[in-house]
Structure formats: C-alpha cells, structure tokens
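[step 3/7] fold_predict: job queued, chain A
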Amino acid sequence: MPHTSRTESDEFVDTASRPETRGIELIGDAERHGRARDLFWVWAAPNVSILNFTIGATMILLALELWQALLVIVAGAVPWIFTGTVAISGPAAGTSGSVVTRALYGVIGNKVIVAFTGWLISAVFLALNWLASSFMGADLLAGMGLTDPVVVPIAVTLVVSAITVLVAVYGHGLILRIYPVVSIALIVVFLLVTAFILPHVDWAYRAPEPLGGVGLWSAVTIGFTILASTPLSYANSPDIARYLPRSTKPSHIIAATALGGAIPCIVFTAVGALLATGVDAVAMDAGIEAALLDMLPGWLGVLLVVGVVVNTVSLNGMTTYTSSMALQAVGIPIRRIPSAVVVGVMGTALTIYLVMSTSLLDAVNLMLQFLVIISGPAMAIFTTDIVMRRNRYDGAELFDQTRTSPFWYAGGWSVPGMSAVVLGGVTTALCLSTDVWTGPISAAMGYIDLSVPLGMAVSAATYAGLARTRLGSIETRGRM
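[step 4/7] structure written:
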C-alpha cells in the first residue's frame, strides 16, 4: 500500500535511470543525499517560462508606466521566500509536504485541503503551461502549412503531456539530474530572444492615460496579485527537498529555492513588460506569443518554441510528480506512478478545453488571480506552523492516522487550521479584483486588490492565535 512509513531502503534507489516507485513513504537517513544548492537549478528550470513574458506584458496592459511595472515585478517576487521556507519541512519530516500538512489541518481535514491545494492548483498550472506550448507550437506549425485551429493545438498538447508524464514517472532522480542542464539551456535561449526584443523596446514609453491616486494603486495591487500567485502556488516545495540530509542548513534550502524561482521570474517578466512597449494593440489582441514570434528570425523562433516545450515539460513534470503524492495523501489507494498518469490525464483534459475556448493571456490572468484564494492562505498557515514548531516534524507521527494520533485533533479536524484557511480564503475573496469578480472590500476601495497581504495576514494571525489555545496543536500536541 502507498500509505506507509517504511523506508524501503533495500528496494529503492533514487536514480535517474529508472522510474521512482516511492511515493509519500518516509526516507531514511541512509537514503538522504544531495546539497541545498542543487535546488537552485531545479527551481530555475520551470521558471524560465514564456508565461513570464505574458505576465510582464500584463503589467503594461494595466496602464502602468514602465518603471512602475518593473517595481511591481520585483515586489511580486518577494513571496518566493514563502516557497523556500515551506521547503525546509521536507528534510525535517522526510516525506511529502502533503503529509506534513496533517500537522496543520488534522488527519481528515488535511485530505480536504490537499484535494484543493495539491490537485486543483496543480491541474490549473498544468493546463496553463500546456496551453502556452499548444498556442506557440500551433503558430510554428502554421508556418509549415498545418493550420487547423483545433486539431494542431490539441495534437501538440497530447505529445507534450505524454513526455511530461514520463518525467514525472521517473521522478526525483531524473529531475535532480537533468534540470540543471535544462536551466542553463533555457537561460541561453531566452537571453537570445531578449537580445532580439530589445531593439523593439520603446524606452520612452508612456502609458496612453497615466494613472494616479486610487487608479494607480488599483493597477499596482492587481499586478502584484497576479505575480505573487506563482510563488504562492508552490506549496509542493517540500517534495523536492525531502531527500536532502537532515543536517542541511534550512537557510541554504530557503535561499536556493527562493532565488532559483525568483531570479528568472524577475528577469524574464521584466523582458515581457519591455516587449509590450513595442507591440501595438492589434498584435497584443492576437496574442503576445504570436507577436513575439513575428519579431524573431525563423531559426530563433523554432528554438524558442522548442525552449517553451522543454520549459513546459520541466515545470509540469515537477507539478505532476508532486501532485501524484498529493493524491496518495488524500487517501486514495493508488501507487505513485499510476497516480502521475491520472494527474496527467486530468491536466490534458483541462488544457484541451482551454485551447478551444480562450486566449493564453485571458486564461493566465484570470486563473492566477483566482488561485490566490486557496494558495495564499494555505502558504501563510504552512509558514506559520513551521515557525511555531521550529520546523520540528516527526515523520512517524505524521503517518499515524488513528484516533490516538497527535494530529487527530477534534475528530480528525484541526480547528485552528481549518478556521484559518476558511477565514483567510473569505478575506482574500472579499479583497480580490478581477474581470469577473470584484469583492465588496475591493469595490469599496476603488478596485484596489489587497487580497494577498490581507488574506495571508488573517490566515496567519488566526492560526497563530488558535494554535496556542486548547484547540491547538503547538502546545497541546492536538490530543482532544
């Protein structure tokens, strides 16, 4: 069965040359390996992404001046600190983050939360990234005479998703081995693309209608929410770090994870903002990815599309890998490899739906904003718990799902954790400002979007306050 705490040290070796059969099982000290700095390249590969160009262009579409957009982009990378912080729980517990969060929400409550944070977010990000590959692959193939607007993008999606699932099946060993090479190759390609973009940049760009006052703060905060949603979605970072030796310094894990994600996001999202200053409205409506390909020589356009596909495989391979363990943590009796296939099928289905119904720019902006309702509070609670426990997690206790478990709490539910995620989620929704939903607090403030800071603050404060009462876990260890 997959829900076991045995180490399988005699049966399993973490290597790139064969599929990883281990799922959420505990990793013994003898099997720990690697260095914290390896995480930098593991996180860089998924984040040298075409979506950065798309999100950067969005900052200009929000009517921000170029310098304002660049400041927002830097600020939007700050939440990568949370991604790095939760990663340290992986080596401490020796298991997946989706198991560690039993300490936050209770044995039963955790199944509900993981179903959303581990599955819903994963499925959306799988679809968004496969969508980018589908549109750009279709644009490239259109130049070769393959112009069917439905069949071609779907065919590209199916091929890329199949490769992605294969990466997830081979798992941690393959990710650790090939992602540094992938990162360097992608950085080279994207820097070449940047060199061809720079001549098109309007360095004297001015917004057609410069913003001020409430309108400016509305644009700035909406932009920040879109940017922050990416690092806040990576609550799976413990899964990638869990093989590291227990002696690995937490500060090194935090730095490698956060910088690996933040640096490429800042650089290439800024390039996306620069790109948007040299693209007219008609081209933007056609899609930033198409406008980008028009700027590049044929050989580099092909290279970029290949890079986008490789990036998509690296990001979605990691996402599929970690969400396959989330499915196990929910309690479904399935081994990790079949679970990865199931996740891949779900993401592919959602991608095909989006290919036929929306543009890349619309899909990215809307989904990223709505995801913070779930991801922001969950990340705040996880970080707060790590700080309050001083990152002390007992892997064996986390696998005890009986009524005598220290994480059984009130009938399997943690009142502090569940209260914090609900109150934080409601606060986030009330403060959110999107094209299809504006919360009453945001509307009353002139469409200023404080969903991320207020939602996370409410979640953290609620959890910290209740966790030290008789309802909590930090002092009472949860036995009720």
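[step 5/7] annotate
The two ends are 29 Å apart (CA to CA).
The longest helix spans residues 109-142.
exit 0
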